[in-house]
Amino acid sequence: MARLLVLADDDLHALGDRALLDRTAELVRERNRIDAELTRTIRVADARQACEHDGLKTMPSWLRNHSRLSAAAAAELVRSGRALAHLPVLAAAFAAGDVTADQVAAIAPIARDAHRVAAAEQGVDLAEVDAALTAIAVPQPHRVLGQAVDRYLAMLDPDGPEPDPTEGRRLAIIKHADGSITGRFDLDAVGGEKLQTALESVVQVGRCAGDERTRTQQSADALVQLCDNQLAAGTLPILRGHKPQVIVKIAVEDLADPATGPGAAGTGFGATISAARARWLACDGAVTRIVMGPDGMPLDYGRTLRLVPPHVRRAAEVRDAGCVFAGCGAPTFWCDVHHLLEWINGGETNLENSALLCERHHTKVHHGFRVERQPDGRWRTWRPDGTEILTGPQRTGAPLTTAA
């Protein structure tokens, strides 16, 4: 521990590339050793039920509450500790820093009670499997190790019934203070194939000229777009008499004030967003006026009005045929109807004041970009600095002429 405090004072910018890589490798080994000792300690505490000392029933609950670990991380530490009690070769490699906590978690399923019983019934020596998988884990990429573990588990029950894919599926969502979320999920092979197929279709259709997003950004945008499509379709299950919808609460003065900063609006699931984001969501949403009393209780509420009536949307879909942002070809059913002059500032909800924009480009238009329809029906797009976004080959220099 003292050595880590000393290392924190090092000037990393003074190190060469080779030195930085060597330092990284050594820190990974040191982290593996610490993770190994943490896992070993948790295993003993789990076996002894030491958590009862603080009035809790399980070690995962103790780790969540006293060490602020996520539910998934706490459960994985306990599972790994229990598995290592049956896998001494892997435990030794872990303690030496040769394998990572992720690799231990990948191998841990072979030590579950059902798998150990199946191995014993078939005369499989778990000690040999422990040594073989550890030998793979030390030099091979994590993907290769996962494939080896899967093959072993499949061999234990080659003729058994196909497992229920839903048993291994998990999705954990963690909400942060600003309302953003991170998550972790596990899907079986077929479920994963379905997700990748759906995302890939959206990713490929959503690519446009000048798209500089990374692959991970494209996939994340595709996931949000899938949710948008489902919410807009109106086919999701009805909840207490209401269709699922994104709810935003904001004071009318904040909604109308273009200078309002972040934190002016709240969502149904407790996130805090800016007034600008609320105005963007309201472009193609429904608005309900609610008068609040001084004690925070509603005094009066009006009818919920859809800002863009169906006939205006249908006309915009026929006219625009998709997202009008330069270079984008997103289909109409991905798009919101954007008010060129915001409705809260007096913009009318009619075809002349409307433009179809996909979720990504709708966001950009509310953050400084601008689209405008020309008298000849063409749409043009400008950047926040006033320069126009032009797509396709651009002519430079004098025009070509041909001799008569």
Order of helices and strands: HHHHHHHHHEEHHEHEEHEEHEEHEEE
Q: Percent helix among the residues?
A: 40-55%
Main pleated sheet: 3 strands, antiparallel
Rg: 29 Å
General form: elongated
What distance separates the N and C termini?
85 Å
Multimerization state: single chain
Tally of alpha and pi helices: 15
Structural class determined from secondary elements: alpha+beta
**Spatial sequence of strands, sheet with the most strands:** 3-4-5
SSE topology:
Layout: H1 2-7, H2 17-48, H3 59-66, H4 71-84, H5 88-95, H6 101-107, H7 113-121, H8 126-137, H9 142-156, E1 170-175, E2 181-186, H10 189-205, H11 215-233, E3 248-250, H12 252-256, E4 265-267, E5 272-273, H13 275-282, E6 286-292, E7 298-306, H14 310-320, E8 335-339, E9 354-358, H15 359-365, E10 370-373, E11 379-382, E12 388-389
Antiparallel strand pairs: 1-2, 3-4, 4-5, 6-7, 8-9, 10-11, 11-12
Pfam families: DUF222
Protein name: HNH nuclease domain-containing protein
Domain HNH nuclease: 311-363
Describe this structure in words.
The chain is α+β, with helices and mostly antiparallel strands and 404 residues long. Among the domains are: 15-159, no CATH class; 169-205 and 215-229, no CATH class; 305-389, Orthogonal Bundle (DNA Binding (I), subunit A), CATH 1.10.30. The protein is 44% helix and 14% strand. It contains 15 helices and twelve strands. It has helices at 2-7, 17-48, 59-66, 71-84, 88-95, 101-107, 113-121, 126-137, 142-156, 189-205, 215-233, 252-256, 275-282, 310-320, 359-365; strands at 170-175, 181-186, 248-250, 265-267, 272-273, 286-292, 298-306, 335-339, 354-358, 370-373, 379-382, 388-389. The strands form five sheets. Strands 3-4-5 form a three-stranded antiparallel beta sheet. Strands 10-11-12 form a three-stranded antiparallel beta sheet, with no helix packed on it. It has a two-stranded antiparallel ribbon with strand order 1-2. A hairpin with a 5-residue loop joins β10 and β11 (379-382). The termini are far apart. Mean pLDDT is 85; it is low at 394-404. Residues 311-363 form the HNH nuclease domain. InterPro entries: DUF222, HNH_nuc. This is HNH nuclease domain-containing protein.
